[in-house]
Amino acid sequence: MLQRVRASFSFSNVIAVAALFFALGGTVYAAAGKISGTQIKPSSIPGNRIKPKSLTATQLKAGAVSAAQIKAGSISAGKIQSGSLTGTQIKAGSLTGTQVKAGSLTGTQVVGSTLTGVSAAAIGTVQYVASTVSINPVSTTGTSATANCPTGMKVIGGGATVSSPATAFVNETGPATSRTAWVADAFGEPGTTVTVTAVCTSVTASTG
């Protein structure tokens, strides 16, 4: 009986059985999760073999995903880390006023040439108010003159002049503490005057 079994085994039979054993053993080996990432050839697994949403951000190599590989509109503001984007990474014209948080931009972050439709008329009605006062030649503290803005307006600029620069001069000029007028102090000889002018506009608040 043993001789009969031995006679039925040839070299090719032994090789075939061995190959079948290793094939089955390899399948079990792989199925048991014994293949690591280092055993997978780079670029050997196409994207369609990866289960959707099976990869997290921590499993992606930094810089491995380019802008061309990101579907348009697939990333919302909530998925962007605060402070991770710079101005150079934002496409010109891609943001509207409603997408910018109120108070998030300062004057140094806005390029003046990019603003359109901004003028003095857009700020409010600008009104000039002037007041002329005769200089008291005997006053040791000078003569004060004030140009008051209309009610509800604030001063945004101003200045002062004298009628005769050869015999009078403006000692000091600037906005009033209330920011509702422009004031000036002047000295001069008899017959001279000082004229102070205020530039006023309607504003909700004033600082500085």
Descriptive notes:
There is one protein chain. The chain is an alpha+beta fold. It has a domain at 122-202: Immunoglobulin-like (Sandwich), CATH 2.60.40. 15% of the residues lie in helices and 24% in strands. The strands form 2 sheets. It has a 3-stranded antiparallel sheet, with no helix packed on it. A 3-stranded antiparallel sheet has the order 2-5-4, with no helix packed on it. A hairpin with a 5-residue loop joins strand 4 and strand 5 (181-188). It is rod-shaped, with a radius of gyration of 42 Å. The mean pLDDT is 77.
Structural classification:
alpha+beta
CATH class of the domain at 122-202 reads Mainly Beta
The description of the largest β-sheet is:
3 strands, antiparallel
Number of strands: 6
The neighbouring-strand order within the major sheet is 1-6-3
CATH architecture of the domain at 122-202: Sandwich
- Report the principal-axis shape: rod-shaped
Provide a count of the helices.
3
Q: How large is the share of residues in beta strands?
A: 15-25%
